[in-house]
Amino acid sequence: MNPTDPVDPKSPKLADFLCFAIYSANLAFGRAYRPILEELGLTYTQYIAIIALWEEDMQTVSSLGEKLFLESNTLTPILKKLESLGYLNRKRSTTDERQVLVSLTDAGRALREKGLDVNLIKASGLTAEDIPKIQTAVVTLRDSLVRHTQDK
């Protein structure tokens, strides 16, 4: 097998990979969110955990992890930090001690007022009409990849 010739115009380039486009867009989103999240004193992952709790308060760690696509061993330190910041409470379920329930405190709910100002539509260079179309396409891609890896 011959190594790929880097000067061959038919050789795939990094910019040709959809996975790299999505990965690098994610990094760009992180940079765009950084000043906003620094003002809130949160990381992006902490922020999306709080958003998920704004949508549905008092949920299990496993349910929250499924929504965020995070394993428990990744999510737990995030939740501990948010708890130490006073934004949420964790407690064992009274009906099933294996489950830990997560709920927002008043301070966590108050972040909603500040956090709702996060809007990067203008910075994205997209129109308000483009956003749901791209979001739908990316979610379809994600869900297909998740199904593909579960089938293996």
Q: What descriptors fit this protein?
A:
Arc Repressor Mutant, subunit A, mainly alpha, 152 residues, MarR/SlyA-like, 8% strand, 3-stranded antiparallel sheet, 7 helices, globular, 60% helix
Write the layout of secondary structure elements.
Blueprint: H1 18-40, H2 44-55, E1 59-60, H3 61-68, H4 72-84, E2 88-92, E3 100-104, H5 106-115, H6 121-124, H7 130-150
Antiparallel strand pairs: 1-3, 2-3
GO biological process, one term: response to stress
GO molecular function: DNA binding; DNA-binding transcription factor activity
Pfam family, one: Staph_reg_Sar_Rot
Overall structural class, as computed from helix and strand content, comes to mainly alpha
Mean residue pLDDT: 89
Strand percentage: 5-15%
Give the SSE string.
Answer: HHEHHEEHHH
* Biggest sheet, spatial arrangement of strands: 1-3-2
The CATH topology of the domain at 17-118 is Arc Repressor Mutant, subunit A
Helix content: 55-70%
Look at the structure and name the CATH superfamily of the domain at 17-118.
Answer: Winged helix-like DNA-binding domain superfamily/Winged helix DNA-binding domain
Q: What global shape is seen?
A: globular
First and last CA, distance: 28 Å
Output the radius of gyration. Answer: 19 Å
Number of helices: 7
CATH architecture of the domain at 17-118: Orthogonal Bundle
Low-confidence stretches: none
CATH class of the domain at 17-118: Mainly Alpha
Largest sheet entry? 3 strands, antiparallel
Number of strands: 3
